[in-house]
Amino acid sequence: MTTAPAPAHPVLPTTARSLEHLLAAAQAEHRLPSVVAGIVRGGRLVWTGAAGTAVSDAAGEHAPTLDTQYRIGSITKTFVAAGVLRCVEDGLAGLDDPLGAHLPELGTGGVGALTVGQLLGQASGLQAETDGPWWERTPGGDWRQLLPLLGPEALRHRAGVRFHYSNVGYGVLGELLGRVRGAAWDEVVAEQFLRPLGMDRTSTRPLAPAAQGFAVHPWADAVLPEPEHDAGAMAPAGQLWSTVPDLARWAGAVADGAGVLRRGTVEAMRQPQVVDDARGAAWGAGYGLGLQLWNADGRRFAGHSGSMPGFVAMLRVDVETSDAVLALTNSTTGFGDLPVRLLAAFTQAEPATPRPWRPRAVDADVLELVGPWYWGPAPLLLRAGPGGTLELSGMTGRARASRFERDAATGAWRGLDDYYAGEVLRPVRGADGAVSHLDLASFRLTRTPYDPDADVPGGVDRAGWRP
């Protein structure tokens, strides 16, 4: 067992021993040449660990350290997606734009008619891999060589109806990002994310010290070096190399934007576009705008896995707490559920401390709206939420709940999520200026059940409630 240098804010010694044991056990069980991992809380690495010694590069065989690069595979997609969404933030592209609007050589039909959002969300129906040689193990060509593969036959499913993971789609998105910004996709990623976040050990090709990727023989304790090359036009699908400390910084962006993405953009990235319902059960995995999503009994996680010949990687963030786990190995077959087990062990041993409650200023017109309301006989509760929002929930069980944000232009409130996402909540005042009821997407919410003095569609029986 090789322990990486201690982080600035370490976990408890008992927690560290538990995590180190899990890491060592996974290295032995899965016969990993080497494996490194980290836990992030509050945007900082609180634990790092390393196991194994077979990290071969130009300097020879040595043990992994925090500075050792590993190939992160499809975690690359999260950077490309973030770059495209920055274009959306800046008004240079739209999620509903057809690809042909930015890549006119694709035409107006077929692949050219697919939208930017469909490719980001793995809902385009585009073929998963390139035709011809296995692109992950052979040198790649440029965009001109990928383009002939994007004819009508590249569409495997009707767009927007099912999850179909497409590496080809992210090759296209990389070209789109570069075309819109007037620079290569990796230059855009470096300018917008890597340099601002201090990720100076993340690159498109390995920079020493870097791990050699290996295939481990299934029936013997022998290893075979895997090839590494420039994937060309397919590089946006999985070519980046990185380290645990660098990915810890990127975990902050996945959690809250880390100053390089707007909060609303991060929330959009974590909104399911499609779910993987192949097993016919409640959805456990899905895809947002460039992020893999996991649903573990209602607890949501976001991030991405990555695999390339010789490497497997994982970045996984708890959406509720922003705690994150990172794991990297130089074995083609990977480390199983090690990241899930590490994060679970950490959070069980050291639960996140709730943020302390503090009073905050609340506008008078917001205070006027909070408290019980009724949708017919169903009791609802409206609370003042953080950031000047309103939060609607049921008082006696399941209800159509939503958060609302004030529309500065109209003074009304617009739903942010759940059933009333995008719908308008409008306070209606009587002749005396007081709020008489709330109009919510044509429903009337009143201060008493079926208030006879409120404007309830269909009217209220004047005889009132009866036994």
What's the SSE blueprint?
Elements: H1 13-29, E1 34-41, E2 44-52, E3 55-57, E4 60-62, E5 70-71, H2 76-89, H3 116-120, H4 143-146, H5 167-181, H6 185-194, E6 214-216, E7 223-225, E8 241-242, H7 244-256, H8 263-269, E9 274-275, E10 285-287, E11 292-296, E12 299-308, E13 311-318, E14 324-329, H9 338-349, H10 364-367, E15 371-375, E16 378-384, E17 390-394, E18 402-406, E19 413-415, E20 424-429, E21 435-440, E22 443-446
Antiparallel strand pairs: 1-2, 1-14, 3-4, 5-8, 6-7, 9-10, 10-11, 11-12, 12-13, 13-14, 15-16, 15-22, 16-17, 17-18, 18-19, 19-20, 20-21, 21-22
Helix pairs in contact: 1-9, 2-5, 2-6, 5-6
The number of helices is 10
Structural class: alpha+beta
Gyration radius, in Å: 26 Å
Q: What is the count of β-strands?
A: 22
Q: Residue ranges: pLDDT <50 for 5 or more in a row?
A: 1-6
The geometry reads as globular
Mean pLDDT: 92
Instruction: Give a quick account of the main beta sheet: strands, pairing sense, barrel closure.
Output: 8 strands, antiparallel
Strand content: 15-25%
N- to C-terminal separation? Answer: 75 Å
Helix content: 10-25%
Spatial ordering of strands, largest sheet: 2-1-14-13-12-11-10-9
